[in-house]
Predict the 3D structure of the following.
Amino acid sequence: MSAQVISTDEAIRDVETYMAGLGQAARQAAAAMRRASSGAKNAALLAIAARLEAQRAAIAAANAEDMARGRDGGLDAALLDRLELTAPRIDAMIEGLRQVAALPDPVGEIDGLRYRPSGIQVGQMRVPLGVIGIIYESRPNVTVEAASLCLKSGNAAILRGGSEARASNAAIAACLRDGLADAGLPEGAVQVVATTDRAAVGRLIAMPEYVDVIIPRGGKSLIERISREARVPVIKHLDGVCHVYVDATADLDKAFAIAVNAKTHRYGTCNTMETLLVDAPVAERLLPRLAAAYAEHGVELRGCERTRAILPEAAAASEADWGTEYLAPVLAVRVVEGIEAAIEHIERHGSHHTDAIVTDDYGLARRFLAEVDSSSVMVNASTRFADGFEYGLGAEIGISTDKLHARGPVGLEGLTTRKYVVLGDGQIRQ
């Protein structure tokens, strides 16, 4: 089974048989990918980048078709933003492939090799996970990001994008198929699920004989369903309820820039700040300035009583607001009494995704890093940096708030595991 996308659902009459075929092809390709050299994998990534560059017009036209259908179908602004492939986003997809090709290949690395009293050497080798199923909504650039990381880490991938991006994904899938062929790697190494039938998702997450791990990227309801029904391990995060806490010692110009960027850089991403916590001693100086900036961006503020005493224009925040991932120009604001109250709020209402402190107190910064139990914890930086590309991973396949097997942005190492290797010279156990 190749990476091609069949044009109509009618061509796939039996979803169960179809998905089993994808699984069989992926399992066969995974064996070939374990043997693939770094050079072959890099050649495939660069060939795919060249195909994307050559097909920019076709990809843009396909995306315009998806955008028009999405507007007609009533997709909200956040989903349309995720769906759109602007010229800079196509540039980023191509650059991401090149960056991943330039990254060191983790596969085959042996760590911790040490001699035992018997004379054997014991270490751990990094190896691919095998077959990775990825389910995602809206963002067609995920098709490229997922393919690049799976290929470089020696895995096979089955990609199931959302129906709203079907034309974009079909155009991208053609580039994937051709790039793999150019490099002499099996086309089954990356397969895009052609059918929009939701039963395909049910089959993908229930094929442990073919699929080793599932990575969902999308809304909370999708991820909850997959976590509940999957028969294979899942790497996931449910919500991105991210916080910025401004401490009383913070440089307020620095705090202003971070708080504006963390909320307004993009609204529809999981690393966007959804709650701003401000230490009481600086609230009256900082909040009016921030409110003016947020008003220019059209951001609605929902505040606690102390916030509304400073900003009467803010709506009253409900208890539900503190735990809401808005993915929209809405921000919850709370005035707190010191770092203890801030950490308690984050622990109670956060989603363990990304949280930041703005402070000039080194001790408080270290305490925040130690006590906030999130996959990314930041000091004096915008939460928008919680991203595989920004972390130097080349791209990311998702962000995990799990503690096993991967946590935070999942790049190449997160798509591998380790096995023990033993080196001997004829030793036998006595």
The chain has 14 helices and 16 strands. Residues 15-35 form the longest helix (21 residues). The CA atoms of residues 15 and 381 lie 46 Å apart.
